[in-house]
Amino acid sequence: MKLLIIWMLNAMALIAVASFVPGIHVDGFVAALIAAFALGLVNALIRPLLLVLTLPVTLITLGLFIFVINGMLFWVVGSVLRGFIVDNFWHGVLGALLYSIFTWALSAAAQQLLGKK
Q1: Is 95 within 8 Å of 21 (Cβ atoms)?
Q2: Neighbours of 72 (CB within 10 A)
Q3: Cys-Cys with 27: which of 55, 83, 94, 102 at CB 3.0–4.6 Å?
Q4: Which SS3 state, helix, strand or coil, does residue 30 take?
Q5: How far apart are CA 42 and CA 50, in angstroms?
Q6: Sign of the alpha-carbon dihedral angle for 77, 79, 85, 90
Q7: pLDDT score for 69
């Protein structure tokens, strides 16, 4: 049940990001649900591998290269899915940053409302 609520909140965060960033477009809530699921899979499976492979660059840039990785993954998911479009890499970076902030805020609010379990 909690996983479904977080999935819905992530989809709502994606719609909010699309309303703030002009280069990100979501066709509807179903497209946002699919995109949130795909972003979750990519962040769980591919992102850790990329973080390990780019560790030297990340250390040299004092962690700022992680923004590049997040933006690239956000952009790639937007390129693959129908109904979720990210126009270019820089919109992906800004979208990934806002998406992480929105999902963090919504998850924190949900934990307060549902109680920590």
Answers
A1: yes
A2: 16
A3: 83
A4: helix
A5: 11
A6: positive
A7: 97
State the Cα–Cα distance between residues 33 and 44, nearest whole angstrom.
16
Residue 111, phi then psi, degrees to nearest 5: -65, -35
Give the mean pLDDT of the chain: 94
The C-alpha atoms of residue 60 and residue 53 are separated, in whole angstroms, by: 13
* Contacts for 68 with CB less than 8 Å, ≥ 6 apart: 93
Q: Whole-angstrom distance between the N-terminal and C-terminal Cα of the chain?
A: 12
Q: Where are the domains of the chain?
A: 2-114
pLDDT of residue 115: 77
Q: What integer pLDDT is reported at residue 117 of this predicted model?
A: 57
**CA atoms of 62 and 1, how far apart (whole Å):** 38
Q: Which two three-digit tokens encode residue 15?
A: 């719609």
